[in-house]
Every structure is written in structure tokens, then in C-alpha cells.
Fold this sequence. Notes:
By secondary structure, the chain is of the alpha/beta class. It is about 40% helix and about 15% strand.
Amino acid sequence: MLFDSHAHFDDPQFDGDRDTVLKSLKNLGVGYVMNIGADLETSKAAVALANMYDFIYATVGVHPGDAGSMTDEVLEQLRTLALENPRVRAIGEIGLDYHYEGYDEKVQETCFRRQIALAKELDMPIVVHDRDSKGNAISILREEGVKNGVMHCFSGSAETAKELVKMGFMVSFTGVLTFKNARRAIEACGAVPLDRLMIETDCPYMAPEPHRGERNFSGYVGYVADKMAEIKGVSREEIAQITTENALRFYGIEK
Length: 255
Ligand SMILES: [Zn+2]
């Protein structure tokens, strides 16, 4: 059974056939899905999905792209969602994203730190999104002394991956591993010990080859497992088993 450790089934791209897609997953070998919140609204939607399907769990958090929406009231609502719903297993996705024009470094940093504090208060792991932050996300994680986190959709260098492992982090890979220009991600994956690896789709985005550009879903997470098995020189069964065990342990889910 595979564990898709990062998915967005609340996305409008699934509005037409969400239930059909979700019900197809078990037959495709997917036993668990972590549905990730990215703002207050999608966090609520993630919790609703987790309360509807026994194989779905949820995270709640505000993505750096929506950092401007973070207020005392939003933080309080995230806290309540996490406290009142046992299927909420982490705070995320949170972090820094300097990819698109118009971002505010200070606003993102404050939003990130406030949610790190929330995760500490609730004794929960965090799911980190770091895109083009020039090392700032890792600096903040160090300053805050965070040890219980995952760097999702990892696309950095092998050196950075090793640094994260030293900090106690998990490192998670998407279908990017299967892309033709994936040399860096492949090297990074090679540098992470087996017991720190997780697999994810980040669906509906990031569909792996040979489905690149299509709508992604957890049924494609096996392509990530296949590629990871090849990189690590172990069997597909071993990768499936270990990444599922890692995600269960990280998110505190009993089999
Ligand atoms: Zn995501």
C-alpha cells in the first residue's frame, strides 16, 4: 500500500468527479492520502474530506502565497480545527515562496513563524513549502529549532537534502523525479537515507511522466515510487513499504 503524503483533493479540478477518483484509489494500491491545507478555506475542506473518507488525513495551514491572509482570527481557527479534529496530523503547508513577483518577505516570514509556533504548541509536525527562498526557509527552521518536519516537493541540491536530514527532517519527492531534467532532484534523492524519504503527488499539480501536464491524482504516486526504487537500487515493494511506514510514523498514524 502506498501513502500519498501530500495531495490537494479539495482543488476545484476535482469538483466534477472527486468521489469517483477517491474511491478508485484503493484498487490502485494507494492506502493513505494526506490532504494538505493551503489557506483557511482549503484547510476546512481538507478536514471535511478526512472526516468523510477513512484513508484520508488532513493538515491545516496557510501557504506562503497566501501569507497576506494570516490574522489572529485565522490562526485561532487553524488551532481550533487542529484541536477538534483528530484526523488533523500536521500544520502545513507553510514556508516561503519567492517565485512570483509581488511577494513580501517580511509578511511571509511572520506567517511562517506564527504557524511554527502553533505546531510547537500543539506538538505537531510541520509540512514545509520552500520555493526560491535563497536559504531563508532553512535558516528560519534552524532558528526556531524545528526538528519534526518534512520538506515537501524537494527540488534542492543533495547538499541541502543532507542538511535537512541532519536537522531531523523528512524529505519528500514528487513526480518531478520522473522528469527529463530531474538530475538535481535525483541526486538529492540519492543522498537521503531510506528512513527519511516520503513520496507524494502534490496533485492536481506535478503529474509524473508519462502523464506530465495532465491532472495529477494519488493513483500516479506509484510512478514516484518506481523512480525512487531505481535511484535507491531497491525493489519497488521495499520503497512502497518504507515510504508508507515513514509517512505513518511522521504523521503519527496507526496502521
Ligand atoms: Zn502542496
